Amino acid sequence: MLPPIFRLTFWLSLAALTSAAFTPARAEDGYRLWLRYDRITDEPLRARYATALQQIVLSTPTGVDSPTLAMAREELAIGLRGLLGPEVKITVSNRSTVELPSWAELKSWYDKYRNPPEFYTLRHEPSDRVVISSVSDIGVLYGVFALLRHVQLGLPLAQLDTTSAPKIQRRLLDHWDNLDRFVERGYAGQSLWEWFYLPEIRSPRYRDYARALASVGLNGVVLNNVNANALILTPVYLRKVAALAEEFRPYGVRVYLTARFSAPLEIGGLKTADPLDPAVAAWWKAKVDEIYTFIPDFGGFLVKANSEGQPGPQEYKRTHADGANMMADALAPHGGVVMWRAFVYGADVKEDRVKQAYSEFMPLDGKFRDNVVLQVKNGPLDFMPREPFSPLFGGMKKTVMAPELQITQEYLGQSTQLAYLAPMWKEVLEADTFASRLVDLDNARQGVLIASSPTATVAHVADGTLHQLPLSMIVGVANTGSDRNWTGHPLAQANWYAFGRLAWDHTLTSEQIADEWVRLTYGSDPKVVATIKKILLGSRETVVNYSMPLGLHHIMAEGNHYGPGPWPIANTTRPDWSPPYYHQADALGLGANRTATGSNALEQYAPQLATLWGNADTVPENLLLWFHHIAWDHQMKSGRIFWDELALRYQQGVNEVRVIQREWDSLKGLIDNERFTEVKQRLVRQESDARDWRDACLLYFQTFSHRPLPAGVEQPAHDLDYYKTSVIRFAPGHPGAK
Amino acid sequence: MLPPIFRLTFWLSLAALTSAAFTPARAEDGYRLWLRYDRITDEPLRARYATALQQIVLSTPTGVDSPTLAMAREELAIGLRGLLGPEVKITVSNRSTVELPSWAELKSWYDKYRNPPEFYTLRHEPSDRVVISSVSDIGVLYGVFALLRHVQLGLPLAQLDTTSAPKIQRRLLDHWDNLDRFVERGYAGQSLWEWFYLPEIRSPRYRDYARALASVGLNGVVLNNVNANALILTPVYLRKVAALAEEFRPYGVRVYLTARFSAPLEIGGLKTADPLDPAVAAWWKAKVDEIYTFIPDFGGFLVKANSEGQPGPQEYKRTHADGANMMADALAPHGGVVMWRAFVYGADVKEDRVKQAYSEFMPLDGKFRDNVVLQVKNGPLDFMPREPFSPLFGGMKKTVMAPELQITQEYLGQSTQLAYLAPMWKEVLEADTFASRLVDLDNARQGVLIASSPTATVAHVADGTLHQLPLSMIVGVANTGSDRNWTGHPLAQANWYAFGRLAWDHTLTSEQIADEWVRLTYGSDPKVVATIKKILLGSRETVVNYSMPLGLHHIMAEGNHYGPGPWPIANTTRPDWSPPYYHQADALGLGANRTATGSNALEQYAPQLATLWGNADTVPENLLLWFHHIAWDHQMKSGRIFWDELALRYQQGVNEVRVIQREWDSLKGLIDNERFTEVKQRLVRQESDARDWRDACLLYFQTFSHRPLPAGVEQPAHDLDYYKTSVIRFAPGHPGAK
Predict the structure, then answer these.
(1) Rounded distance, CA A65 to CA A137, Å?
(2) Per-residue pLDDT at A148
(3) Can you tell me the ipTM of this complex?
(4) What are the chain A neighbours of B77 within 8 Å (beta carbons)?
(5) What is the CATH code for B170-508?
(6) Domain range summary for chain B, segments of one domain joined by +
(7) Candidate CATH numbers 3.10.450.50, 3.30.379.10, 3.50.50.60, 3.30.1700.10; the one for domain B30-163
(8) Which residues of B touch A688 (CB under 8 A)?
(9) d(Cα B425, Cα B427) in Å, to the nearest integer?
């Protein structure tokens, strides 16, 4: 053995090496969402809370515990222990008197929104006791989450006293999840529902999911894909659904299922699914009764019928109303609803696709049962980065309509790109439809008459105040999956949060919600809060700029919908699945003429809007190409010609991503390295993607405009053929991807 | 406002409510595997370690840091900080002299196993300094893991001094992962490799995966499915592979890829993939050279050729050796290898399927290049719960053979049932092939002659000592996936661990490995250790008993391979895909006659074994039906007739699951509630599955035996038709499941 020679090159103190990032069990992996409950670092503030929050009263009519109140207590335990420290002793008591600040205030909420008793009141008594009241246990749980949010945000206890009630009754996430755990248009791993392992084996994640929903006030979930499989309605699967419902129930979350219209043929042994056939109606009635034996609080069915190949009543020469009402009659005795999707368009393109839903459903206004909800995507096409609102919101007056918003970013960069969607949703919710209320109130559905709604916005259609309908609902297509951080992109958690908060109260601003979410998720360092808020608030417009600016739409890659694809799709039998149908590029210009000289989709809107939007000089520039075919040399408001404006808008999108990158980089050291790196890596990809969008679209449109790129626009990295042949394979969320 | 009435029903102290299970961030979700590093609770022991482990020397020839040594330091930091507490100050130093206990000892290891310099020595100096030495950085990292394991196990420092080297050179996990993240026969979620997001976006899990591999001494990974897609060999994917290789490299883990034999046609633009066509050879050479520009330490190709529809050299009338050697020649200059799978069988069933691999490959012995490895499944069929070893291990003498073991439990209950597989693998590794060594050593490959190997076990074939071949390898088909706990079933982590430990040292016993794993994963409470070890050690035999006892095989459900399916598969064109081909049930009896009066598969084994196994009275009872057709009234060793024995064996399997349930239940309160519940739920499912196996198989075989169930066997819950029509849909890991 050789004698040892000590050549010590350096010494390292292990203490210096260790950090949270090295310890997987406590890694900042995003699992905790906005419910982090980390100890408050502002010690005087923590001490004030610790003094004031030692006695908490849960006040309900019964005054006794239930599974939901147990969850409320558990949440207080987790939350306050984390925020204040385990050394603070806290007692939680129940009592049977609901102590409300004002019955009148509550009655006005209730009359206005006809809500189930989900409100809560918070009151900080002078004796340093906090009372959380509701007439329901779930209201108390919502109050607990509100209290914990208040503390997490570091707000003064003087501002605690409040009463809050949801403006919309049914606030749902809609999962496009298949039984094999593939999520259609899902970009965060597999479905959360482990069907094969249910009902015996129940992931702890089911409760964490329901808890997250309750924390933002969501109260329902459609478990499976609108492109439905009838097997979900068979007993073997209903037992599994019941297990999920059991896990969700304490958090006030009810389950809904999609119903495949042809289920009577596929699992029922019938020869027809004709909704007017008594045997069919009887089958559905028996099936619904059976479902309620498994799930006593089952929410209802969501149906995609006669759309994109899904079966429906039209196969039997029946209307959508015939189909929906037949199911609604089966559900009504149990308090269930039918959500019938308005996203329909014919296989043969008779008229401008964006007109078809309106054409199909307007004649049915007033023909639906009380427990039917028409579920309407925010825009008339399909979740584009920007669309005008769907004209159905202004058109139908006797039909309950639920806005369907897409939280998953199918057309906005999926889970690699950043797009905070609250501004997009607010744009729709606050859009004035200019609809008048029905003068003849006898024709309106029952409901308590209220004074007036301020404007006929989409939000007031959705919350039921405009047309005083007895039911209200809003639906978000989920962006969740089995990824550890739930949403793939760490910042996409903000979209889940924002949807929930807006579903509860659509008057919150995008900025308020962003402010809350950033503080809850990244802490209250002023630089961190200001930077991430700024990044979030502009991010959707950035995606619009580098992908589909100025009202462009549906020019994304075929199938996966991820990158650019403005060129025609080869061998398609459907012109309306091919981008030129929408952008109409030619030697003269670009854009779809939907004025009276074109498809006249404008006629589906109120006259005020038709006039405003029908004129290329008065239409908002961000909808220009949605409604108008614009000449390449058209003079824009900027003074530039249209082609130059278009090109610069694409470049602007790329530039903005680079600004976001710099802003994010400035957070290094201010937030944990793990989440810092995760977003940083995604921004690298986004910048590359943004350049691809710019280059591919400008090269393609240039084959029509024959104009040079203006100064300030970078030269493309490749030729057009490169982009046309760069096919992304195995894209997540793309059915049939290969 | 009503005056408040206080009706306090009860008070709860929050402190009593909070527990680890309520705090998601620290939940016992299994992510940490066997690398938990929780603080040692035995305070005197912790103090002793804390004194002795404050100075650690990493001793390598260069004495300078590298990415691998940085990982070694990081692991020491994480590990010792966790185990000893952050208050213990520890210094780690490098030095350039390798201080080994005995060069002679090392030389003997090296000569015997011709291993790369991956050994380590640990020495606890009297001055309370621990020296970890190796001639390579990776050896030091292995030593660090060994040191940490020693401390985690609470072993005396007096037992620390050791030298350890792997007996097999290349120790690989083989992932059957597709580019869309589907894992064929994977039961733990999606593939860990997020291809769409690479190379920019790199999950922190990549490093945690490599770290887990290194911790048990594994040094390679085949990233993609043997049912291969040629796209993996295109630059867009090679860039992604290179990113993974970069993440793995510091942990000594090299990447390998499967090579689709027809790649020259599919991505190369050639008209043929004929291995003897110079253009084809040139294409592969260029492709390999290209791969090494991306991944300088690329390990090599794994090829499944002319098997189950995969393309191969036989399409061009060439042999497996022609195909393998052509690729091997391309890889040789870079030090890469070809793993050629022996799992082949013809589309037309010419002879007993279990004979085909031997028939096909024996004539090729001696015809393969030095850097070709024949990858041979442990048994001649396909990873059944019990098989005899593959006769190729005893047959081929001039060919490097790597045992392919299946860690993922395709035929052993997947991730809902418990089966600790070390006893199954040991059964194979310790099986004596009775092969003689070549007398004419000139015909043997080059290699250093050693004295003799004790017996001609499969292990000694695998480690190269029997035939003195220059290369050795062992491969395990991975059971990992995106599930938070990596393996789906929490206890299936033990199989990953056991494979790694056996790959390093096949002389370890199943019991030793189980003991280590339980202590590392669940702590050292004697009751916990004893109970879980007992559960683990019998668990594989339990699965055998309730599914395929007494040598039965291939009677599982079609396609998903999960539950029972002994009946014929309807409409199959292949008799060898239908269970009756294997069990041969008829009015006389049950089992495959593979003696000289039957298919004579026995002739492929050494004469000693052919004699022993050819006699129904001397063949081990657990292989009885593998080799013999046994009459229903055949007298068994127990004194019972065969039918009664069979039925009771099925019942015994069910009974054993119930015993496991009771044993597991006895751990309540002794381990964390989260992992307790997770396993408990799975055992409920397993008990139900076991009954299904018993009932379905006995009802079916009863249609041949026409005998009643003996006393002690429970009556079936349903009739045979129920089981035949209970199709499991959307089973995980089943390609084409619907």
Answers:
(1) 9
(2) 98
(3) 0.93
(4) 14, 17-18, 22
(5) 3.20.20.80
(6) 30-163, 170-508, 543-592+629-737
(7) 3.30.379.10
(8) 200
(9) 5
